[in-house]
């Protein structure tokens, strides 16, 4: 499958997904670490892709959504932003709301993690 | 200093900011001394009024697309309208420390 189709499928089949350097348990970038921690704090399940472990996605994700940096957080199929936006939304409470709204659309047993 | 100056100049031209800070944070990361790879930008501009954060960041990213394609590896962005800036009393969160992951 073409890498952009692969990304599209991931983004559309998960209520919340983060493309990050490392994993939520072992982040390898301070910005990725903070964004993943903010998502974890929202309490809902989210998917992640370690871009350091997938060179094809690492190379092509920036052009997928015309966003040049990592991490990238998608909620309900839409890019919400990178680390700074995720953290700002977290402190304003908007992240919790957006994540909860997205989770409602996907019954728990169907979500991929 | 060249990249830092270019970033400041381009942002000033594009956004006519009320307040701008461009800080080279490369020393916080695993890069050679004197690198210009990691930056933190604070931009306060009336052009952000009525625009969601994702649109504001896109506008900045596209202004700096040349730099982001080149040496600039990380860009911490804080984009505010003058009203938001005054409401916050003029402070932004510090950027996180590097955790060692490289560019590839």
Give a quick set of tags describing it:
heterodimer; A: 113 residues; alpha+beta; four-stranded mixed sheet; B: 104 residues; globular
Please describe the topology of this protein:
The complex is a heterodimer of chains A (113) and B (104).
Chain A: H1 3-12, E1 16-20, H2 30-41, E2 47-50, H3 55-64, E3 72-75, E4 78-81, H4 83-92, H5 94-105
Parallel strand pairs in A: 1-2
Antiparallel strand pairs in A: 1-3, 3-4
Chain B: H1 2-15, E1 19-24, E2 38-44, H2 53-63, H3 65-69, E3 74-80, H4 82-87
Parallel strand pairs in B: 2-3
Antiparallel strand pairs in B: 1-2
CATH homologous superfamily descriptor of chain B: BolA-like
Helices and strands of chain A, in order, run as: HEHEHEEHH
Number of beta-strand segments of chain B: 3
The number of distinct helices of chain A, counting runs of at least 4 residues, comes to 5
Q: How helical, in percent, are the residues of chain B?
A: 25-40%
State Rg of chain A. 13 Å
Biggest sheet, spatial arrangement of strands of chain B: 1-2-3
What count of domains describes the coordinates of chain B? 1
The parts of chain B where pLDDT drops under 50 for at least 5 residues are none
Class derived from helix and strand content of chain A: alpha+beta
Strand neighbour order, sheet with most strands of chain A: 2-1-3-4
The CATH architecture of chain B is 2-Layer Sandwich
Biggest interchain interface, per-side counts: A-B, 27 and 22 residues
Polypeptide structure, described:
The complex is a heterodimer of chains A (113) and B (104). Chain A is of the alpha+beta class and 113 residues long. Chain A has helices at residues 3-12, 30-41, 55-64, 83-92, 94-105, and strands at 16-20, 47-50, 72-75, 78-81. Chain A has a four-stranded mixed sheet with strand order 2-1-3-4. The longest helix of chain A has 12 residues, at 30-41. Chain B is α+β, with helices and mostly antiparallel strands. Chain B has a single domain (2-87), classed as BolA-like (GMP Synthetase, Chain A, domain 3).
